[in-house]
Amino acid sequence: MAFEGSPALDVGIGFPSHPAVLDPLEQSLTLRYLRSKCHSWDRLRTEKYVFGPGSIRNKQLPSKGSIQTHEFRGTPHVDRQATGFCQAIAIDCEMVGVRNGLQALAFLSAVDFLTGKVLISRYVVPSEKVVDWRSKFSGITEDIMTSAIYSGAAFKSWREARNKLWEFMDDSTILVGQSLNYDLEVLGICHAKIVDTAILTAETVFPSIISTKPLPRMWSLKSLAKDFLSLDIQNSNGGHSALEDAYAARDIAIWCIRNPEELKLWAENARRREEECKLRKRLQRHHKGKSKSKLPASQSTRAWEYGAKYDDYSDNFLWSDLAEDLGWPEEYDPWSD
């Protein structure tokens, strides 16, 4: 990973060779779409977004972040015309494990959604003693963090990182990303203008689920990037790249805007596969101890080619088995990336 301010920043690990480019007209249309797709407060609350000390007395929130609830702050309101802040920003964070299975911010990337310009791509000194660097996923080791600190390439705290992000936005800026509730938890930010690609795509698959009920499933950033962009991400032996993931979330959102019919087709096929999976499970419960009957092949008007490695369900599929096969830490949550 390149340090912010170094000459290699714009060509560092995770910077896509061909990020989506929006001309001025498409930028304007895209912004209108994003504003119309910002999730309701009910949906964000249901998916465990934090909206300030007065609304987070529930002990389940924050669900994973180590920041105390009284330290959360809402994004400041600023006169946009005077400052020229970004109207939409894609962000992604890398976290490390601290006490009691919680996590703290260790890297922040932010990209101007409309122009694709890198705003921030920088290490953050963890706020607590690290008990698990999660190097396989975060791409960060103790030596890397120490080097970043000594070279001046790391924010001194999550507060400094939060303040830096706020230099580019105000409370009307739209934040875009994958499962952003986890990112905002480690930044101590309460923000209402959200387009979460995990929620956006899951709501397309499950349009009848009301906003006060949790969505039954969300698709990972890796599988969405493969299905929509034919892009393989998170494959580096050095761990994930927050910059790569921020660009992937941005380009997934742009793909959804540009290809509404293809998105609808993907959602129809994903919903069919979910229904088939549920039916198989019901049959298994009903016929315990008996040989499983094979379901007839479903017919669809058009075939969607799924690229994600684990999109095909088996009768005995267990997430715990997959986690063990992939060597994930017991406490690691794949949907938080």
Q: Can you walk through the features of this model?
A:
It is built from 12 helices and 8 strands. Helix 8 (197-205) crosses helix 11 and helix 9 packs across helix 10 (242-258). The protein folds into 2 domains: 9-258, Nucleotidyltransferase, domain 5; 263-326, no CATH class. Mean pLDDT is 82; it is low at 1-14, 298-319 and 321-326. With 337 residues, it is α/β, with parallel strands linked by helices.
Question: How are the SSEs placed, and which strands pair?
Answer:
Layout: H1 24-37, H2 41-46, E1 73-74, H3 80-83, E2 88-97, E3 103-112, E4 118-124, H4 135-138, H5 142-150, E5 154-155, H6 158-166, E6 174-177, H7 180-187, E7 189-190, E8 194-196, H8 197-205, H9 221-229, H10 242-258, H11 260-286, H12 319-326
Parallel strand pairs: 1-7, 2-6, 4-5, 6-8
Antiparallel strand pairs: 2-3, 3-4
Helix pairs in contact: 8-11, 9-10
The portion of residues forming beta strands comes to 5-15%
**Structure class:** alpha/beta
Give the helix tally.
12
Order of helices and strands: HHEHEEEHHEHEHEEHHHHH
For the biggest β-sheet, the strand order reads 5-4-3-2-6-8
Structural domains: how many:
2
Q: Which geometry do the CA atoms define? A: globular
For this structure, the CATH topology of the largest domain is Nucleotidyltransferase, domain 5
Low-confidence stretches are 1-14, 298-319, 321-326
Rg measurement, Å: 20 Å
Amino- and carboxy-terminal Cα gap:
17 Å
The CATH class of the largest domain, by name, is Alpha Beta
- Mean pLDDT across all amino acids: 82
Sheet bearing the most strands, described?
6 strands, mixed
User: How many beta-strand elements?
Assistant: 8
CATH homology superfamily name of the largest domain: Ribonuclease H-like superfamily/Ribonuclease H
Chain oligomer state: single chain
Q: What's the CATH architecture of the largest domain?
A: 2-Layer Sandwich
